[in-house]
Known about the structure:
membrane, transmembrane, 160 residues, mainly alpha, 72% helix, single chain, transmembrane helix
Amino acid sequence: MRRLIALGVCLIVVVELLALTVQDRRFVVAAAGVALALVLLSIRRILGSDQQPEGELDADEPGESLRRWLATTETTVRWSESTRGDWDRHLRPMLARRYEIATGQRLAKDPAAFHASGRMLFGPELWDWINPNNITRSGDHQPGPGREAFEEILRKLEQV
């Protein structure tokens, strides 16, 4: 729609410039009126048809959304099967945010309650992989917990 309006304004300006180059000035108003009528009719046609022009297809159609979700999910699963460094950079922050949202516990509000409820919900072994304060800078190449632990964490988050 924006593109059509911009092109319409450009068309009107170009028509007026061309009409000004002609010796007979009475064509200026007529040519600008015709160009404006074409632009307005095009806008009315687009608004009246409830469809977007082929060049302006909505990028958020269901198929595209599904493809983006699938690509994000595949990447997340790959990170779960990767090293501890990938887990710490990508999955731990995401899981900690989802834990905060699901339980209502905030680390900044009450750190002791945050950690206690995390250990109680996930158990000490899984909580070590969610705890946002358990990041190691030196163990980047150590293996992560794997896909099974990731699935178990997600399963427990769904039950909350």
